[in-house]
């Protein structure tokens, strides 16, 4: 892969389009291999913790650890992006995931589930990196194309994410053949996947899209709360990567205070953050406990891997369609569609009993609902805030969604361990119904005003 010029002529739209195409290719490649690492962990982590700890309740902490890790690494990734560009942030996230996989291999080898949970926290860096990559795709997007470009990078995770769970058994066998203990092999393979993602980003993401977007929007006027209010009131693509949002050199030093300041003056961004968090919480809560349910019902690794693969396919395969629909029909209608899909998934999962086909259908719908929430919500966040505040707001968005997701997995483990998987479906169904009603009412009131 040859390197593009570090400082392309930003006065030529064709050069910017060429850089954006290159950026999308590099991000898509990183997503493809990084998705393998994330998916292997999703398929096996709760089962391994269940076996090592002997507790269904504790097994729920496997998903919690990974989601918590993604939350904890969201801000360092955002800060690194704000200071050094997208390449610096993504490299940090994938390096943490690589270290976490290696620590997980050690933990499984010594049969220490608390150490495994610690490793899974770092593995969450893979999710943090993949989530940050979707925002990187919007930095140079022309007006009205943010959702489509974002969705292309999300879609790129399909191959790795769908293949990942199905590689659990063969990589386990390869690992044991190489001298690793049972179930350590998949995590060693995930480490290799994250190492490849790290190298792709470090070598290929040149020029850095966020740095280039800042150059395109530079102006001597400082950023003020008045500027923010004016920009945020424009709920249109004019604040996307190629907007006229004001930038000052001091804008490099972003803080969470910057994000909160921006969100206070940007109601659409606040709504988007809430819906992203709800979508992610619903998806992670049900998905994290499904392997345990299937395991207790007598399903083997092949069945569990197939169900999770189809779920991940639902998350990613249709994302370009979701992105196109978000740009054409509007982000809020797609967000409400996502809530409807999540409700359908919760009902099906909660009433599935021992019917694997119904659980599988529920997991596919769960993935589709998540895709609507993530793609439409993320595009709405990017389009609603000026470019110089974007990394901070995006980092806060990923932090909140993953904290909510981690909380959801803890609650999900307690519900399934103390009550039932069916009760988990009921709780998730109520949550997404309330969120959908709130969005519909506030959107209608805003249009009426």
Structural class: mainly alpha
* Content of β-strand: under 5%
The radius of gyration is 21 Å
Number of domains: 1
CATH homology group: MFS general substrate transporter like domains
CATH class: Mainly Alpha
Shape: globular
CATH architecture: Up-down Bundle
Helix content: over 70%
Report how far the terminal alpha carbons are from each other. 52 Å
Main sheet characteristics: none
Please work out how many helical segments DSSP would assign.
17
Low-confidence region ranges: 1-6, 219-254
Topology as a string of helices (H) and strands (E): HHHHHHHHHHHHHHHHH
What name does the CATH topology carry? Growth Hormone, Chain: A
Compute the number of strand runs.
0
What value does the average pLDDT take? 80
What report would you give on this structure?
The chain has a single domain, classed as MFS general substrate transporter like domains (Growth Hormone, Chain: A, Up-down Bundle), CATH 1.20.1250. The chain starts with 12 loop residues before the first helix and ends with a helix. The chain is 80% helix and 0% strand. The chain is globular and about 60 Å long. The longest helix has 41 residues, at 13-53. It has helices at 13-53, 56-84, 86-109, 113-136, 146-166, 168-177, 185-204, 209-217, 225-232, 256-264, 267-296, 301-316, 319-329, 331-350, 356-384, 390-418, 421-448. Helix 11 (267-296) runs parallel beside helix 16 (390-418). The protein is built from 17 helices and no strands. With 449 residues, the protein is mainly α.
């Amino acid at each position: 892969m040859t390197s593009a010029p570090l400082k392309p002529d930003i006065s030529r739209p064709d050069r910017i389009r060429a850089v954006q195409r290159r950026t999308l290719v590099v991000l898509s490649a990183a997503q493809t291999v990084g998705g393998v690492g994330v998916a292997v962990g999703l398929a096996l982590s709760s089962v391994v913790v269940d076996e090592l700890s002997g507790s269904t309740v504790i097994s729920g902490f496997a998903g919690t650890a990974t989601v918590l890790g993604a939350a904890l690494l969201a801000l360092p990734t955002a800060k690194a992006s704000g200071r050094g560009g997208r390449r610096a942030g993504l490299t940090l996230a994938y390096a943490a995931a690589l270290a976490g996989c290696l620590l997980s291999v050690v933990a499984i080898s010594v049969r220490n589930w608390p150490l495994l949970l610690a490793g899974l926290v770092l593995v969450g860096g893979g999710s943090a990196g993949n989530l940050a990559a979707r925002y990187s795709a919007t930095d140079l997007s022309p007006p009205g194309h943010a959702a489509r470009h974002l969705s292309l990078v999300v879609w790129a995770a399909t191959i790795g994410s769908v293949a990942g769970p199905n590689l659990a058994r063969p990589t386990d066998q390869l690992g044991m053949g190489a001298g690793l203990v049972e179930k350590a092999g998949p995590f060693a393979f995930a480490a290799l996947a994250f190492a490849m993602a790290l190298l792709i980003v470090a070598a290929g993401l040149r020029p850095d899209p966020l740095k280039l977007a800042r150059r395109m929007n530079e102006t001597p006027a400082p950023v003020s709360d008045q500027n923010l209010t004016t920009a945020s009131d424009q709920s249109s693509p004019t604040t996307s990567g190629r907007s006229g949002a004001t930038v000052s050199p001091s804008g490099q030093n972003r803080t969470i205070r910057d994000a909160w300041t921006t969100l206070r003056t940007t109601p659409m961004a606040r709504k988007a953050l809430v819906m992203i968090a709800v979508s992610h919480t619903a998806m992670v809560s049900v998905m994290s406990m499904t392997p345990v349910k299937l395991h207790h019902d007598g399903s083997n690794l092949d069945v569990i891997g197939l169900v999770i693969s189809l779920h991940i396919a639902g998350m990613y395969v249709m994302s370009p369609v979701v992105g196109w629909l978000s740009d054409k029909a509007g982000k809020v209608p797609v967000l409400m569609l996502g809530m409807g899909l999540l409700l359908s998934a919760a009902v099906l999962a909660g009433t599935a009993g021992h019917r694997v086909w119904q659980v599988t259908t529920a997991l596919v719908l769960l993935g589709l609902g998540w895709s609507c929430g993530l793609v439409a919500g993320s595009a709405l966040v990017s389009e609603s805030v000026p470019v110089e505040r974007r990394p901070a707001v995006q980092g806060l968005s990923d932090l909140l969604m993953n904290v909510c997701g981690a909380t959801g997995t803890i609650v999900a483990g307690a519900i399934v361990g103390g009550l039932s998987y069916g009760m988990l479906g009921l709780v998730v169904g109520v949550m997404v119904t309330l969120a959908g009603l709130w969005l519909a009412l506030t959107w209608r009131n805003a249009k009426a005003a």
